[in-house]
Automatic annotation (TrEMBL):
SUPFAM superfamilies: Class II aaRS and biotin synthetases. The keyword Transmembrane helix does not apply. Belongs to the class-II aminoacyl-tRNA synthetase family. Keywords: Ligase. GO terms for molecular function: ligase activity. It comes from the Bacteria. This is Histidine--tRNA ligase. Signal peptide: none annotated. Residues 12-277 form the Aminoacyl-transfer RNA synthetases class-II family profile domain. The keyword Ligase applies.
Length: 277
């Protein structure tokens, strides 16, 4: 039994964190089990990594802005420690440590909490349960297409009626910047472009002007964005989707999709669910 001293202080959950009662846990566990079943049907295998890593493992991998969101501290052994910010970087550590043990290509899934020192707002928390699937050790477009097929299958199993998987590539974005003769502030420009779906072209333009990007250069940027087409590799990924049974209604090429982390180098995906909202 809890001591009565608990009642003498205001009891509350830390900002940005949540408690889940049995009713909510039933839904979360249903979704989690459905995800696991789908991943394993596609041949992905589970791994887990520690909550805490050496700061040197985590820092410098996400970009300057994201690095600021890593929970880091000095532990009792005077070691620089960080809490898991995402699942990709810890998996890269696993691959480096166990390269002689893990056969390639390696198809892994991982479902664990991650922690980010976010400015909390609707839909953004400081602790979230993240779900990752990746294929390592192959450059085949089939591997990327398979990830999209998994996303498509999961959303259909969850009975989402209308959704769109938005597809782009950092190669496409880099080619756009090159065509615009943009050689400086690339990440800053892409960070603004990534807000296109929320604030539109006018909003992105205003933000870029605030970053001292010349208006003429912004005009050229949007000209090339409107003309953009998938690069050869990304087109091969898209071509594979039909073979994997993904309907054309469920995906589209969108050259404004950026995603925020610096380690993205190729295809990038984002899913928008429109029904049910």
């Amino acid at each position: 039994m809890l001591k009565s001293t608990m009642n003498q202080n205001k009891v509350q959950t830390l900002k940005g964190f949540r408690d889940f009662l049995p009713e909510a846990m039933a839904v979360r566990n249903y979704v989690k089990n459905l995800l696991i079943d789908t991943f394993e049907t596609f041949g992905f295998e589970p791994i887990e990594t520690p909550t805490l890593e050496y700061s040197s493992v985590l820092m410098g991998k996400y970009g300057d802005e994201a690095d600021k969101l890593v929970y880091s501290f000095t532990d009792n052994g005077d070691r620089q420690i960080g809490m898991r910010y995402d699942l990709t970087v810890p998996t890269a550590k696993v691959l480096a440590m166990y390269s002689q043990t893990i056969p390639m290509p390696f198809k892994r899934y991982q479902i664990q909490p991650v922690w980010r020192a976010e400015n909390t707002q609707k839909g953004r928390y400081r602790e979230v349960l993240q779900c990752d699937i990746d294929t390592f050790g192959t450059n085949s477009p089939i591997a990327d297409a398979e990830i999209l097929a998994v996303i498509n299958t999961v959303l259909q199993k969850l009975n989402f009626k209308t959704f769109t998987i938005l597809i782009n590539s950092r190669i496409v974005l880099n080619n756009i910047l090159k065509a615009c003769k943009i050689t400086e502030d690339k990440n800053s420009i892409l960070q603004s472009l990534d807000k296109f779906s929320k604030i539109g072209q006018d909003g992105v333009t205003k933000e870029l002007i605030g970053k001292n990007i010349p208006k003429a250069k912004i005009t050229v940027l949007f000209k090339y964005i409107k003309q953009a087409q998938p690069d050869e590799y990304l087109q091969n990924v898209i071509n594979q989707l039909k073979i994997l049974g993904v309907s054309k209604n469920n995906y589209q090429f969108d050259p404004t999709i950026v995603r925020g982390l610096d380690y993205y180098t190729g295809p990038i995906f984002e899913t928008v669910v429109t029904k049910p909202k």
